[in-house]
Structure formats: C-alpha cells, structure tokens
C-alpha cells in the first residue's frame, strides 16, 4: 500500500511503500540507517542485513544523498524517535540516483546556501520553518473566516502609494507611471466600505536599501480593514489574531518546533491581553535603558524596539506615535492631535515590529487637509478621498508582516529563511 510519511501512524504493523529521497545515512557491517524524507515529513528506515537480500543491503549502503527511491517496509513504533515511528525496510527501488549533491551534512556559508536555496529548502530545519509558515497561513484564513471577514484581493500594480513613493518600485503601465504595491491598505479600506470586515493576503514590495535581518524586498502581508470599528476595537482583533496563530503552531507543529529547538515555554506565554505602552512611555523607558540621545518625535529603530521588548514576555503595543512621523491617513487623537490613534506591535526576543495599524481618518475636510500637506492632489488619489465623501464611517485596520512573524514564532535568525525564495538587496537568484 502506498502512503506518505505523515500518514504512517495509520499503518503500524503494515507493509507500506513510500516514495522518498535519501536525506542522510549511516551504516555498519550489519545494519544501515536511512534518513528519508518525502515532503510530508522525515522518517528513519532501518535495513538489517540478515533480514533483506544481499542486493538490497548493498543498495542501502551505497545510496547517495538525495537519491530518489521507492521504499517498501513495515511501520513500527519507535519511542526514541521524536517522530514516534520508523520503517523496517524490506526492499529499495531506485528511481533516480543523485550524484554529488552540493549541500552535504556539514557547515556551509550563508551565501553558498542562498545560492543553492532551491536545494537548501530540502533540509530538515528549512522544511520545519516552511511548515510553520504554512500553519500560520492556514490559521490566518481560519481566524478571519471565523470572525466574519471577507477575503478581498487588492491590485499589485497601482497608480498611487499608500505611504509615499520614495521606497517603491516604479514601472511603466503603458503610457502611465505605476508602482509595485507596498500595501493593499487603501484598496482594503474601499472594500471595507462595501463588505464591512475584510482582509487581504498577498505580496508587497519595498525598495528599501536595508540589509538587516528583519528586511526583505518582497514579502507577504495580511491586511484586515474593519468598518464601524475604532482603534481599541482594532487592538483587540490584533491580539486575538496573534495569540490564535501562536496557539495553532503550538498545537499543530510540535515536531517542527522540536526540530528547530524552539523554546516553546516562551510561546506558551502568548495569551491575551497584550501589554500596551504609549509612545511617550516608550521614550521614558528607552532613556532609563541608556538611550539618552532619543528625543520626542523620532521614530524607533531596531535597537529601540528590542530594548522595549526586553521589558515584556509578550508582544507589546506601542500606541499614540507623533502625527508627523506616521502616514497621512492615520486619525489624530481628538484629545491630543499631535499624536495619532495608532499602534505598532513589537514581538518579543528581538524580532521587532510585526504589526502596524491605526484608526483611519474618516472626516472629509481633515483628509483634504492631509492631501494638501502631503501633496496628494493628483487624480491617482481621488478615489480614496471619495471614500470619505460617500457614507464615511469610523474604521480601522492593520498589516501583519508574515515573514517577521514566522521568524519570531519559529525562532529563525533571519527573515531570509522564512520565505521560500527571498528577495534581498543583493539577491534575485535563484
């Protein structure tokens, strides 16, 4: 019976056939241990010389790394294995023999591994990170569907920018200027006015010349927008969503977290409510921690975010940033217009901002004023202004960066390991 590694628990004591690749092996004179993978998981195949033909044992000892095979064997429980099962091998059918696989079981430099990303994805740790990414995506759809959100897909090619055009990729759209989307938010606001609660999940692009472990040129964003909801409502959705995806990973990716040696006790603390501090309180906290040069009105960089996060064992909201350093569409605090009703969610353990969100301006006159201040008077933004003209309502939304979230939950050192084929400042290959 053909099966897959993730289904062997249903076939204990039965003989099965699994199509697999050889990830690694070791052998002695009387027994060979084959580390097999099939895309769904990893399992050890045990080949005992006295229990198989001479030809089969010879095959097992001489298999090369990444050779593809059909393995026939009996599934047995194995309490020593994190997976819980192994395969007592009876027969081996070679499909294709791999020769001189470049990524051997030894240390390789980062650039070498990135040049061979198409092959590096096969490794156990990279496989585990991608499975956790997949679980976060699955949980994201579950959460927003359960909460009554409608999935809407904004365009990738746009004629306007959500937060200014200085860090956008320009392109020609026939005879017009166009940009690769840096956010679907403006379009999601339009969708919220039609459907109430909406979310998008898609690629975004930032032409930001940054080489930090938190930055990618192309990354994926989850961007919900909610009509008839304010800043406080949005914060509650955000913390519920983040705690939901963390719990889903804890429940469904135990083996992957074990493979990555992730400290799950830290993840088990991620429950609502999340702590909140204002921008003003964050400034005071930073000064206490030795950042004496920081002044009110500056944005926070990675060292600031890390220092703030060290004071908490959960993600922390930093709210009410100065109006002048935030996007034109954010609603000022009615009681203090020099700050806006916004929040950044900072992940623990030095992973930085994973969510940015705010209540949006819903007043037509104020938005017109913002247009003048930011020189957004062209036709490209006319449709966005009209959202305030025809049935405007209080509304709020946020964007979660998938790769930073995967890095934090999986414990990956760099976001380049959290996306299948990363696009970095110096990398467009493979």
Write the layout of secondary structure elements.
Elements: E1 15-27, E2 31-37, E3 42-48, H1 54-62, E4 68-77, E5 85-96, H2 110-115, H3 117-120, H4 124-146, E6 150-151, E7 157-158, E8 170-173, E9 176-180, H5 185-195, E10 197-205, E11 218-227, H6 231-252, H7 254-259, H8 264-268, E12 276-278, H9 279-288, H10 302-309, E13 316-319, E14 332-333, E15 336-340, E16 342-347, E17 352-359, H11 364-373, H12 382-389, E18 395-401, H13 402-410
Parallel strand pairs: 3-5, 6-10, 12-13
Antiparallel strand pairs: 1-2, 1-4, 2-3, 4-5, 7-9, 8-9, 10-11, 11-18, 13-16, 14-15, 16-17, 17-18
Helix pairs in contact: 4-6, 4-13
Short description:
By secondary structure, the chain is of the alpha+beta class. The chain is built from 13 helices and 18 strands.
Structural write-up:
About 30% of the residues lie in helices and about 25% in strands. A hairpin with a 4-residue loop joins strand 2 and strand 3. The strands form four sheets. The protein has an eight-stranded mixed sheet. The chain has a five-stranded mixed barrel with strand order 1-2-3-5-4. A three-stranded antiparallel sheet has the order 7-9-8, with no helix packed on it. It is elongated, with a radius of gyration of 26 Å. The chain folds into two domains: about 90 residues, OB fold (Dihydrolipoamide Acetyltransferase, E2P); about 300 residues, Bira Bifunctional Protein, Domain 2 (BirA Bifunctional Protein, domain 2). By secondary structure, the protein is of the alpha+beta class. This is Asparagine--tRNA ligase.
